[in-house]
């Protein structure tokens, strides 16, 4: 089983990490990876990155017509100290 620390470290190393990418990297189901990412988000360690509205290739066979490729991506949360 993958640890929350390993996931956090992977996100830190990649800068911005997508859910499906992490799922493949750790060989875990996307649902489990999503739950672990949500836990890290709740703990204040990472933050969700808003989806980019542009599709890099223009038309994806997997996307319904008129929909852009939406992915769930996360990055390390920056601590803001005053």
TrEMBL record:
Keywords associated with the record: DNA-binding, Iron, Iron-sulfur, Metal-binding, Repressor, Transcription, Transcription regulation
Keyword Disulfide bond assigned: no
Record-annotated Transcriptional regulator HTH-type FeoC domain positions: 4-74
Gene3D superfamilies: Winged helix-like DNA-binding domain superfamily/Winged helix DNA-binding domain
Aminoacyl-tRNA synthetase listed as a keyword: no
MF terms (GO), sorted A to Z: DNA binding; iron ion binding; iron-sulfur cluster binding
Organism superkingdom: Bacteria
One of the Pfam families matching this protein, by short name: FeoC
Ligand binding (iron-sulfur cluster): 55, 60, 63, 69
Biological role: May function as a transcriptional regulator that controls feoABC expression.
Family: Belongs to the FeoC family.
Name of the protein described by the UniProt record: Probable [Fe-S]-dependent transcriptional repressor
Organism annotation: Limnobaculum parvum
């Amino acid at each position: 089983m993958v640890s929350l620390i390993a996931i956090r470290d992977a996100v830190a190393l990649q800068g911005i990490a997508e859910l499906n990418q992490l799922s493949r990297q750790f060989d875990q189901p996307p649902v489990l990876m999503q739950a672990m990412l949500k836990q890290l988000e709740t703990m204040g360690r990472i933050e969700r990155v808003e989806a980019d509205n542009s599709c890099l290739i223009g038309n994806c066979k997997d996307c319904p017509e008129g929909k852009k490729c939406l992915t769930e991506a996360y990055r390390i949360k920056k601590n803001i100290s005053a």
